[in-house]
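Q: My collaborator sent me two sequences in one message, no labels, and asked for predicted structures for both. Can we handle them in order? The first one she listed is below.
A: Yes, handling them in the order given. First sequence, followed by its structure tokens:
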Amino acid sequence: MGVFRTVSPRAGFGGEAIVARVEDGRLTGIAADPKDRFTRGLLTRFARRYPQRVYAEERLLEPMRRVGDIGSGDFEPISWNEALDEIANALRRAGEEHDPRAVLHYIGRGREGILPSPLMLLLGLTGGYSTVHGDLCNAAGREAARLTFGSLLHHPPEDLVHAKNIVLWGKNPVVTHPHLIPFLKEAREAGAQLLCIDPIRTETAEFCDEHVAPRPGTDGFLANAIGHVLIASGLFDEEFVGKHVSGFDEYKELVRHYEPKKAEAVCGVEEHVVTALAKRLASARPGNFQVGYGVQRYRNGGQTIRAIAALQAILGNIGISGGGFDFFNQGAFVARPYPFSYATPPRVRQLGAVSRFGRVVLGADDPPVKVALIESGNPMTQNPFASATHYALARLDFVCVVDQFLTDTARRAHIVLPATSMFEELDLVAGPWDGVLRLRPKCLESPGKVRSLRAVGAALAQRLDLPTDQFSIPREEMLDRILPAGLSVNRLRKQPFARHKPDFVPFGDGKFKTPSGRVELKSEMAEVSWRVDPLPYYAPPRESVENDPERFKRYPLHLITPKSADRFLSQWAHDPAFKSKQATFVRLNPEDARSRGLENGDSVRVFNDRGDAKLPLRIDAGVPEGIAVIPQGRWIAKDGFSVNVLTHDDITDMGYGAIFFDCLVQAEKIAQADKGSSA
């Protein structure tokens, strides 16, 4: 029997330290790593199911060729030689008839390792390729925090015990980040008050001491209104502002216009609640802000994050124990660029933002995209405006998808290659919450005819008469090459690398890597780089009554698409344990249901001019009026719909992020004769 300390990237926000038990070459059990200071013996629902995932009946174990219509799921097994020959021929044809950049490489978040993709290295050897930039998860927030503080750093979770106030702003860790909950409980036992700010009453709102529910996309206005009260009442930290804040006078003038009474009209939060909230934040310090990704999934997302971050600066909650603005932690991202070499310098063409995947692929010219290699992602389900993604994939001459399962994207491929699992290849995982770099060792041999992508890259390079040297370098050597001095795979086998100790305080030295060397409430770089106001000015969401009253008349419900307990992004759709655990509903407020003649359990069509989704109704008083809630991560093939048939592919105001939550819809009852699944 073998026991392996490893790390799961599918534990929500951050890595989950686990122990894998292997008997006779087979994964037989998963346990939480009792030695890990963050996991603390807690095992998530996903990790428990890894043995079932590795040996799932639906797992792909050999190459497959589509023989039916696109999206049909009608595939036949083929040999590796046949699959590799078809892929190589498609790459060669695209380069000869057009240009190497007629080939698109797309990689999602399914791997979470730090080694470069072998397919990307292969395409670099051909002289060029196309790709997309930005991020679907947190791009706007990361850029906003960087502009404000200069670095993306978290307080260690152990430091929460020193906080008097903890604000979970747009964050639902009960579902998305269970390893944070024990630290929140300890902080509460030590006297901290927990406040949840979220448009809907989530599981975390139930867990907290208080819940404030602004209208979707108005968090930036609420933050500026709180700033108004803090400054007007003299409740800000004048000493910290004087020493460490740039642009305060201009910020003061900005928030002068955000009176609490206006916040009541814009945000739906009563004037007295805004005032009381500001005074509470000022009276119980230090205070920590835990900020979720949903807050910045609107077109105004970057400015919203800057407005929330500004509160922590003027409250003096930066650079002290128990304080902090915790959004994304780059503490573990210590890798150097891998020193690979190309036969000829690659010409990498950025087609556009990843959230506009379908649009930019369809619109590419000189050369047009003809071939796509897609790995570790499911853009058909996960990217906004699914109809455009479908048409883009359908138009291509050749699509190859690498995955463990026949996802909605894989069903639109010509060739699907079976992917290794996280237990079958050595890599490292950098946690974006705990800031820890952990080894993910090889625990198993791959089942069936599954091959590593390095083997695939080598075989394709050989067929294309390209150098194969890089694909033969042992993975441990590759990792050692990109690790900084003092770190090695061998050292990480013994102990994970945590750059910061439990008593680390970000910015405790008062130094900020911004142009001014201070916290920047006014950022000239924001204006230069993103053409937004240098101050955290509030703009209404793209789809709102203020911005588009005609659309609001037709689609008066604001759609929110949160994560749920039975999916990690779009993963685990194959697992019957999760499918049976939680049926998928659209949730509406009782008054919204009544006004539409809807009752609990009715079949409902949720729609806008981009598409529709058909699913049962759950009436929920925890959803405010004017909001529809549908969880993300569903597959068309498994669940009958994807919520991203409804979402818009516009981008955030900075960072090239996605605006999943910036979306208006309408809901209506489905007549018995019209019942059916959306595609």
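Q: And the one she listed second?
A: Here it is, processed independently of the first:
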Amino acid sequence: MTFSTKTEAEIIKSIKIVKHAAQLVGIIKDDTPADEVVRVSKELTSKIKTSVVENTGFIIIKVRYSNPHLASALANALAKSYIDEHICKKNREATKVMEFLERQLDEKRKMVEEAEENLREYQEENAEFFALALAYKDRLNLIDQDISRLTEIYTSEHRKVKVLQKETDKIRKKLKDLPQKEQKLNRREDEAIKTKTTYDKINDELIEAKIANEIGVEDITIVSLAIPSLTPINPMTKMNILIGLIVGLILGFIFVFVSESLDASIATIEEVENYLAKPVIGVIPRIKVEGGIGLPLLVTKSPEGSLFAAWNMIYTNIDLAIQRSNNIDHQTFMLTSTVPNEGKTVAAINLAIVSAHAGKRTLLVDMDTKRPSIHKIFNILREPGFMEFMDGKVKLNEATKRISHLVESNVLPDENILKNSEIDNLYIMPYGHIPANEVEAINSANMKSAIEGLKDEFEVIIFDCTPTLTTAATSVIASKLDLAILVYEVGKTARHSLKRAITHLSYANINVLGVILNKMRTEDLEPGVGYYYKYSYKYGVKKD
């Protein structure tokens, strides 16, 4: 909501606000006659003055009254009454928005169902025709090949050539209705996709409105309460001054920005678990990185090292949590974060490494639709990748790279990354081409088919996804996977943002398994937890 401080200053002096404030301090009682209520409210309005502090969102309320204590009480009551009315107004507006979106959503849902039903009916009605058309096309291809072969030996007037040409003409007559039917099919498919995209957009807006309403961040606060002034302002007047209240009309977006920027107060395992009602499944301490410009990836030269042990413990916790859920068939899970640069990509790589070390055929998929980076870390091409595999343009072996082959080919960018390691079970799949509309691309039927195809080939599939609050694509991807794990850099991201990230994933009906705390300070770690270590690690990536 955008405020005009001058307008809001006048609203504070309105009869409605003044009447409510007078009731709060007892100047107007429940049994006060209606005409007396109006008279007293108007009289009090003349004793109230509001002013705006230049170049700020602050409003000063001044009340002049013969009783200094009553004057300060009335000023404070005016502030409270105004805030109460402002909250009621915001709630009413939010309710109207949500009701409107819900009506729109119902209408679009019916349109989606109708479009999909039309498409299904048309496909069923013409299924036999399209099947025959496919067979005819194959036959035409074979005839064309035969004619081409024969004309190398005979002229076009040869009997065999003419027989084949006559057959070609007959088939083409049978296929004369194919272009028209294909156009109708394409139109119905496009209509189904467009209505579904519109429905998803409205649904996303409704979810955002519900989240904003549930958070209920106040954008107005009382900066300073009024106190009685025992010194008369002017001996010529009957009123004593009361300058006791500055109401800060801070613009909503400024308040949210400041509060969320400063409130990064979750710093311990217990606080995270209590606030999110989700378990902390692992902790990675703050690592000192010496030299280079790279990230602290896992060095697999020494699987017995402390860094490997920490990530291996996290992987074990994930595996145990899945087994406790009585659903041990989970194969696909995503690593995401609230905002960029919280360490989700490093977490995805390390979990893939320890999974491969555990003997499981593991695939690491780059699904960061905004900033795909796994191909850079492993010094491979971004294309072809998952998007090409999903669209059916390449086969699985063309879209993936086996780590052991990268080691043998000596293409890894740094001597410490995965060298001398026998991780035959680990495969990398880069993102591929970046589509114009990533949400529409990954919300297609091809996405589901692609994931099912990967499940047939791999035991564990780890998706490195875009931060949850930066795009709707992450929720779409999450809805198609089994589990989600949130990586949270301690002390960086505001607690409200972290809570919203969990809520976003919950709306997608994804099972959020828990949180990995990254860059935890050693002094904040709980005593007696054996897999927390303090160590130094060197890593560097060569520049291009």
